[in-house]
């Protein structure tokens, strides 16, 4: 009997995509009897399935195979996903190792993977490592909104409110446009620090200068903040503003108001 015909990369990708069980998908991928021709898409599919299932040893086995498969230049987004999977598994050192090894995958690291690493370190609360890598930021180009959002959030986790505000001022000086996440993070942090005047000022800036509409969580944080400092009447003023703006009042809003009443 002759050797069986190799299964096409398209067929393998279809098999992997349709298989819901990551363990079975792993077995399909590595089955030596099927003579697969591996494509970047098939590598991406199996690594994503294994990473999401936190099957880290299996994911690393495929990753090593991809590393050695010199036919392929590995796309940066795939390696960003690997970094995020390590973060979800609370393996920050492996996230760092993956970032540092990006060139060995025939890929050039950019701000995209740098931001993925910073976010992974933030997820794992490795603040000193964030500071270390932030000092290398210039190697990957000027920071963007995502970079600042991660660094600002890291500051609030460490109780460094003033430093978070300095980073926001730096954003504006360098014409990096803040987004909903930026303002949501700043307002949340200021409210937790009972700096309500600044929190309301940030909301005003968000609306008037940047034309961004506050979401429910922004109003909820403001509502909790005014309750914490005893300005209970302002909680109902915030509720009225939410209704005027057509925002749906969720259970957190109603629970906050019940505590006031």
UniProtKB/TrEMBL annotation:
InterPro entries xrefs: Mito_RNA-Proc/Resp, PPR_rpt, TPR-like_helical_dom_sf
UniProt cross-references to Gene3D superfamilies, sorted A to Z: Tetratricopeptide repeat domain
PPR repeats (start-end): 144-178, 215-249
Cite the entry's keywords alphabetically. Answer: Repeat
**A Pfam family this protein belongs to?**
PPR_2
The family line of this record is:
Belongs to the PPR family. P subfamily.
Q: Per its record, how is this protein called by name?
A: PPR containing plant-like protein
**Annotated organism of origin:** Medicago truncatula
